[in-house]
Predict the structure of Outer membrane beta-barrel family protein.
Amino acid sequence: MQKDTFGINTSTYNKKDNIENNVLTFSDNDSNKDFVNAFLNYSKKIKAIDTQVFTGLQYSNFDQGLWSQVENNFNDTEFGLTQIRDQKFKVGVFLGRIDIEKKFKNEMKLEVGGLYSSADSKSDFDIFYYETNKNILSYYDFKEQNLAGYSQLSGKIKKVDFSVGIRVENTDVNGKFKTDLLPLIDKNYTNFFPKAQLAFPIDSSKSISVNYAKSISRPNYSSLSQGTTYINPYFLYGRNINLDPTIIDEISSAFQYHDKSVKLSYYQNRNPVYNSFIYDDGQNIMTFKDVNFDKETGFNLDFTMPFSYRFWTTTNSLVFILEKIEDKSALFLASKPYLYYYSNNEFKLPKGFTLTVSGWGLTKQNKGVFERNERFVVDMAVSKTFFKNWDCTLTCNNVFNNNIQEEQFTINNVSSKARYQVDWHEISIAVKYSFGKIKDSQFKEKSVDDSGRIR
């Protein structure tokens, strides 16, 4: 259960044709988010046929409300009530899953399974306009059902480890406003998702692997609602009931030498989701929301290099990235390689202290549609164990308080140059007491589904 009270206060200059306005906007917002998740797992090993059976049931419910009161002051006159906004969103999701795993004497393993999910959400929208003394009511219902079957065969042929599998999914989606006779969204489609992995050992210290996978990434249920957030008289943050899932194709190859590796991968995404502007010239209102772009492609070259020397242990990752995002509504700016770097360093200090220093950085990113600034962030932590069972950790993230994020793009004939200041600098203290060692258990809990779509 979570409750937030916050204000959104803006100072806005707007000019359209020969009309100019300077507006101060104060909005008071009350938000509540209630999330409940219940699951039941059962696992059984049938020793006679060396088969493992897993079944799982899960029900999740997410209930969110946002109440807002908006006041505007045009051209240094006086504040006047503009809107009362009452928005509610609720989704319930039921999932069921069964997996059967069979091992054979020749080290082959066959896995088959099925998944069923059903989601039902309601999005209610109530706005009272003080200027016209009118209420705007809107009720939107959304339903989604997924039925999936999958199979995977893995094992070893001579010295080659392999894994091949396929997943088949059928999706039925229906979205309808209560005042409409026909649904706004009515889709029923089936997708196939193959995958394959091969690993070739060269010797005891070196190996090469090749992977291919096709997968799907679906929007959160709340992203598929009709909610909006009022920023000022000319600007709204909105959600998008028309979002489609993203289909991802990825192929990669990796060379492993002891604990060091280099990996080259290529991916192609259909219907990737990014931010976009939609401008209503008649009402002079800009809406900023997620939309599906046409295509995204990219190459990654990833070097991973762990290293240890006396009291120092470090893991470093260096990734060269070339990405291209394309959409017919956007101006193509440039697509250039950029660099991502990550380093995690652990130092064993005297008297049982451990110092951890980690950092990551990005050079300037040119992704075709989007241009973003370079970033560099450092986190630090100091920990020590007292009296064997007490562990105390002091953590400071974003040590140098690097909070500026810049982005520019042109979409739907709207040019945007944004500069965001996000304060996520945090200092925390954690104390943990260990009662003893955890006994080994043959049962390993499996996730029935990723609940990330629910919140």
Summary: The longest strand covers residues 19-46. The two ends are 12 Å apart (CA to CA). The chain has a mean pLDDT of 92.
